[in-house]
Amino acid sequence: MNEIDCFFAKSMESIIIENLGQHTLTKIKSRLTEKFGIGIYESLSQFSKFDVVLREFFGKGADSIEKKCFESILLLNSKSVKNSDVYLTIKDKNLTMLFLETFGDEMKKNMMNSVTDKQLTIYEILQKCDIPQTSGYRKIKQLIENRFLTVQDYATSSDGKKIPKYTSVFENIKINIEKNNILVSVKIKNAFQESDMLHAMNTL
What we know:
By secondary structure, the protein is α+β, with helices and mostly antiparallel strands. Helix content is 55%, strand content 21%.
């Protein structure tokens, strides 16, 4: 599963539920369970599987459904041919507020900056940012649960146990205010650009 698909899966699930109607949604859920043994959220976290089932029901019409859902959540701004940078504008209001809350928190911002170019264990993040363990662990847990941080490597302890090393999913964030609208634009790290959702958006 790609971290970008996982990050947007919850928002995508809400939009899908709004747009398909309960009867169709029940059929799709049943088919996902039958074909892949997963629910709708899990299929959106592995978007290609959701896409397969959606096309069983709607054929080429799945394109317009997916496009409408994507446009309610995010906009793919640009992809530089030179360096393959991928920027997204967040359109979902709940996600916008999540980004503002996260990057507006100095501790969380420092934590994410500490792992922009490297992978660190939780203990190393707290040490590097000089953050108390009690409040630090709570905030790191929130970053992991909201998928701003993800495991990308492991360290080995003295007793042979594997310790997760985390990195940030997003490399940069821009916040603009236009006519009282808050626009959040984020850059995806190169390591997470191989996304089923982004691929689908590029082909629609």
